[in-house]
């Protein structure tokens, strides 16, 4: 069993390296090896004149040799077996070459002929099968399977006896080649049958190489299917006719009129007719929201569009202009495929629709459907594009009654008229009557007369009916929390977490995945049954719930103010947990894009009626605002937001009423250096004094500290702490020969079972937290009440300060603000340590992965020296660091901490060498002898030696980056001698070797490109014999990777410039 992963990885590697073969084709290729080997052995050892011994009567030796050649020619004929086999192999290889190279050229130059390549593969396979058949029959006819041991040679009327040597070997050769040829023929036939079946059923790509473009170009999310009960009504016919005449249509009409379902029904037809085309549904109404879906499209379709650092020139532009430019680039990129593309923009605002129209109107390769509820605005500028969707016609209602709701057909027109012929209302009303058993249309109409708006009344009654099916208060709470979320699709993992949280609130300590699935299916069943929402399926791994607007609004109107506050507060807590930075993988890109709209919606929620909970709710909203900022960094959307102040930080200052005092400090500060130690200390003291005046409610403190999600690292850290605590107590009891102080202590110790009560990605409860406090793995609530707000502010400042690294390390005022926030977060952490004796995580992180990074990059000797000393101390740090009350990091036991410090210490050493060389060069640039001095300093510098020594302890992944940095250093020194170029090439090649040793899926494309680019530049500068030829080879390889992977655009342009300069005279 242990061998299985290795075997699977080997098979995967084979598949990756045999792109132009099926599995059968690869087997055939493997079988070439024994056939070629047998053919060469046959020629050298079996089928030649040396293995025919003739015995003439009267000849001298020279005549005997001549006679043996003539006799062998008669014996072997003019066409011996190995000639036959050479020709057989040559023809099959020739056919293979005639297919491979034209196909390779076609794929490389992005010709849209993937199906032709697959058909060509089948043709060449069939031709090779025919060749094999012919040679199998010809071998049997010419040679058979019997070789005589004696041969009589007739020469000058003399019969000369000859002995045939190695007869058994010759027979074995003939039989083996015959059997192999039959096996190869069978595999060929299997390959042909498999290929025909694959093409006929259109079941994915036949060859891996024809599947790669599909994965790169067409793997974006398909729009979800329309609801099951939709049919091709008159509005759908009008939409089809309109799209035959123009490429952009705006569907207007009231909510519930079926605009979205019409668009999705058309999208389904489009996908069926254009299997390889792009089709994408955008769910974001405003230009700012649209960025989220645009980023998702770019990521999924692998479009060659990079947003990082490309919006500097648009700092003061309106968001609409930024979105317009981005859509233009997407349009131009997608147009290159020369295929029809369908985009559905659902629930768009007028501003968004204007941008879309300007970008896509009259671009024939695009079909664009826009749905909107802002009907009155779409008049001027949208003449001819607008299509009013007012719901079903009377004819549609008759068809619906006949096909789906036969029991209500007599009164169906009355019901439709009451509900303004809106499809959503009609379907929901029919389902409500079915669930109510004895209720008929007239009874329902009478019931709806009590409401001012019949549609609102219908969904409020449906809500009450759905609540009756909820078997407990927990299910009702879950239902209501879902209603508070945004109208955007709700991912299933967010639903599942909501179920888990509400279950823990009900003291269900051990909820299994099967229970979660069962509860989710029950919830979805009720929502779909009463037409409160739909389930969108966009691939097997991408399922989401989408609530309808009218039911959602109707349900919220029926709540009391206290219920509304309760449900929205629960929603804030759940979102705060779900997007927690520690429990989410930083690369969880698509999840962030899905959940951003819900976080933004939560931040806009009205809590004006919650005066008694105002502080707690503000803290929750600030926390979510901070996490929204974090998600913007992880999804690259931060590049569109150029403000150096974060809303979370400003809200924090507002919460403690600090803004005016901050302005006074900045005004009076004579040094005007917001990153100086004195300035930071003064501001930290002010914040601390303000925080003491504010009291956080105890119930919110419990919610935020005692009840939250745990990841696997948290659990392992807590278990280690509790186990060590048990060992200490045990050894103490043995040495003192006494029992524990009280039976209560014994009982508490016996009840705590961290292995069972603390599960990775599980839920921490108040009971767990109290037990952890007793074991020294958590901080008591009394102390946390004093610490929480200050720690909270340090977290907010740290998150914002880290923007320094996401905005290309901008220099100047913006960079100073980020550095200021990192240093202030550290100073606030120091205050907590001094006043309460607690090391919070920010005390470690703000320094380790914060301002010390900036010091290393400063090119300042003193700052680099300080960073070096600090990283050395952090490597042997023995403290324990807490986050929100829980033990989080024990540096001496934390592998990530050790690796991070070692890596940064390595960078410190190199930064010191770079700074020394740069300073020396600047001081003595004009002196020739300075070159030798600099070079000696470079190679003899302690930092250089220490870096080399530390390199041995780094893991391969970090080692690959380290070799690139060494290569960059050698390139910097290359003006002092070509030997540094030699060293640079060696270092870059080491990186390349480390990456190529990994499986294909584990390789880092960016790292490989950097290494190849470095080798290219070094060879270009060195100019030894053959260097430019090799440089061209490396440059073309890097450019090909950049093009295929659609990355490193700047590097690609740089390499193209080097190629052009080498080609120029």
UniProtKB/TrEMBL annotation:
Protein name as catalogued: AAA+ ATPase domain-containing protein
Keyword Transmembrane helix: yes
Domain Novel STAND NTPase: 235-286
Connexin N-terminal domain boundaries: 111-194
Subcellular compartments: Cell membrane
Protein's membrane topology: Multi-pass membrane protein
Keyword Transmembrane helix in record: yes
Ranges annotated as spanning the membrane: 20-42, 85-105, 171-190
UniProt signal peptide: none
Alphabetical list of InterPro entries matching this protein: Connexin, Connexin_N, Connexin_N_sf, nSTAND3, P-loop_NTPase, TPR-like_helical_dom_sf
Keywords: Cell membrane, Membrane, Transmembrane, Transmembrane helix
BP GO annotations: cell communication
Main location: membrane
Pfam family of the protein (one): nSTAND3
GO cellular component entries: connexin complex
């Amino acid at each position: 069993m242990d061998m299985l992963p290795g075997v699977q990885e080997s098979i995967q590697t084979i598949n990756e390296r045999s792109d132009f073969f099926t599995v059968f084709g690869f087997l055939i290729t493997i079988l070439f090896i024994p056939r070629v080997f047998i053919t060469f052995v046959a020629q050298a050892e079996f089928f030649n004149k040396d293995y025919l011994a003739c015995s003439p009567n009267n000849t001298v030796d020279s005549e005997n040799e001549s006679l043996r050649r003539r006799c062998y020619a008669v014996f072997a004929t003019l066409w011996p077996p190995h000639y036959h086999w050479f020709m057989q192999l040559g023809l099959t290889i020739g056919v293979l070459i005639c297919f491979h190279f034209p196909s390779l050229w076609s794929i490389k130059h992005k010709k849209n002929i993937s199906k032709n390549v697959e058909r060509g593969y089948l043709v060449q396979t069939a031709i090779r099968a025919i060749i094999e058949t012919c040679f199998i029959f010809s071998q049997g006819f010419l040679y058979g399977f019997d070789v005589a041991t004696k041969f009589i040679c007739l020469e000058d009327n003399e019969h000369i006896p000859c002995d045939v040597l190695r007869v058994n070997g010759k027979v074995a050769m003939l039989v083996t080649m015959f059997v192999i040829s039959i096996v190869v023929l069978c595999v060929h036939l299997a390959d042909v049958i498999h290929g025909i079946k694959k093409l006929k059923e259109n079941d994915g790509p036949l060859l891996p190489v024809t599947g790669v473009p599909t994965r790169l170009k067409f793997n974006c999310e398909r729009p979800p299917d329309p609801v099951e009960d939709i049919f091709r009504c008159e509005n759908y016919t009008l939409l089809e006719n309109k799209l035959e005449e123009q490429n952009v249509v705006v569907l207007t009409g009231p909510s519930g009129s079926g605009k979205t379902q019409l668009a999705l029904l058309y999208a389904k037809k489009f996908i069926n007719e254009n299997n390889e085309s792009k089709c994408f549904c955008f769910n974001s109404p405003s230009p700012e929201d649209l960025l989220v879906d645009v980023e998702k499209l770019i990521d999924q379709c692998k479009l060659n569009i990079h947003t990082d650092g490309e919006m500097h020139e648009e700092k003061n532009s309106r968001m609409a202009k930024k979105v317009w430019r981005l859509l233009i680039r997407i349009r131009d990129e997608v147009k290159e495929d020369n295929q029809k593309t369908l985009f559905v923009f659902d629930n768009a605002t007028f501003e968004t629709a204007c941008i879309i129209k300007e970008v896509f109107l009259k671009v024939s390769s695009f079909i664009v459907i826009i749905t909107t509820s802002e009907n009155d605005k779409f008049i001027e500028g949208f003449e001819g594009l607008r299509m009013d969707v007012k719901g079903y016609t009377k004819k549609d209602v008759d068809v619906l009654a006949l096909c789906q709701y036969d029991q209500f057909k007599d009164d169906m027109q009355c019901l439709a008229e009451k509900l303004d012929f809106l499809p959503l209302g009609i379907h929901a009303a029919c389902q409500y009557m079915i669930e109510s058993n004895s209720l008929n249309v007239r009874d329902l109409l009478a019931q709806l007369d009590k409401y001012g708006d019949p549609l609102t009344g219908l969904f409020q009654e449906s809500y009450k009916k759905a609540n009756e099916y909820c078997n407990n208060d927990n299910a009702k709470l879950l239902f209501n929390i879902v209603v508070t979320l945004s109208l955007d699709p709700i991912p299933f993992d967010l639903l599942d977490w909501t179920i888990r949280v509400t279950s823990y609130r009900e003291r269900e300590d051990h909820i299994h995945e099967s229970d979660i699935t069962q509860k989710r299916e029950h919830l979805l069943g009720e929502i779909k049954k009463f037409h409160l929402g739909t389930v969108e399926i966009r691939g097997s791994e991408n399922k989401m719930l989408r609530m309808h607007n009218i039911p959602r609004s109707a349900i919220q109107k029926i709540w009391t103010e206290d219920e509304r506050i309760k449900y929205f507060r629960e929603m804030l807590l759940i979102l705060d947990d779900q997007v927690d930075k520690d429990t989410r993988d930083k690369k969880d890109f698509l999840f962030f894009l899905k959940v951003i709209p819900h976080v933004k919606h939560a931040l806009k929620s009205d809590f004006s009626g919650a005066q008694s909970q105002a502080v707690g709710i503000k803290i929750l909203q600030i926390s979510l605002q901070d996490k929204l900022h974090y998600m913007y960094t992880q999804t690259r959307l931060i590049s569109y937001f150029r403000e150096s102040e974060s809303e979370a930080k400003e809200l924090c200052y507002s919460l403690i009423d600090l803004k005016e005092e901050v302005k006074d400090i900045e005004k009076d500060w004579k040094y005007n250096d917001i990153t100086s130690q004195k300035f930071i200390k003064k501001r930290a003291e002010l914040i601390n004094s303000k925080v003491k005046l504010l009291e956080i409610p105890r119930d919110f403190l419990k919610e935020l500290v005692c009840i939250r999600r745990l990841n696997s690292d948290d659990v392992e850290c807590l278990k280690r702490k509790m186990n060590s605590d048990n060992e200490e107590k045990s050894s103490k009891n043995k040495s003192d020969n006494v029992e524990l102080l009280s039976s209560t202590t014994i009982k508490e110790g016996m009840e705590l079972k961290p292995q069972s009560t603390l599960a990775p990605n599980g839920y921490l409860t108040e009971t767990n937290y109290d037990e952890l406090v007793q074991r020294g793995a958590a901080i008591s609530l009394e102390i946390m009440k004093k610490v929480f707000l200050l720690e909270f502010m340090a977290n907010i400042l740290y998150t914002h300060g880290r923007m320094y690294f996401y905005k290309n390390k901008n220099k100047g005022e913006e960079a100073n603000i980020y550095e200021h926030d990192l240093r202030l977060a550290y100073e606030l952490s120091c205050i907590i340590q001094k006043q309460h004796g607690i090391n919070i995580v920010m005390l470690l992180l703000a320094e380790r992965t914060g301002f010390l990074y900036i010091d290393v990059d400063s090119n300042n000797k003193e700052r680099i020296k300080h960073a070096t000393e600090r990283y050395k101390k952090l490597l042997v740090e023995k403290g324990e660091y807490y986050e929100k009350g829980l033990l989080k990091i024990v540096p001496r036991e934390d592998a990530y901490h050790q690796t991070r410090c070692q890596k940064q210490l390595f960078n410190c050493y190199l930064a010191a060498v770079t700074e020394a060389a740069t300073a020396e060069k600047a001081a003595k640039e004009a002196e020739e002898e300075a070159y030798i001095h600099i070079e000696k300093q470079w190679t003899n510098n302690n930092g250089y030696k220490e870096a080399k020594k530390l390199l041995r302890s780094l893991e391969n992944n970090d080692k690959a980056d380290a070799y690139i940095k060494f290569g960059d250093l050698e390139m910097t020194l290359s003006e002092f001698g070509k030997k540094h170029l030699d060293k640079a090439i060696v270092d870059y090649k080491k990186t390349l070797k480390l990456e190529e040793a990994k499986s294909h899926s584990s390789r880092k494309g960016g790292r490989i490109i950097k290494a190849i680019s470095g080798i290219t530049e070094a060879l270009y500068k060195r100019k030894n014999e053959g260097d430019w030829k090799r440089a061209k080879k490396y440059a073309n390889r890097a450019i090909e990777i950049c093009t295929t992977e659609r990355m490193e655009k700047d590097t690609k342009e740089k390499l193209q410039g080097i190629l052009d300069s080498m080609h120029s005279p």
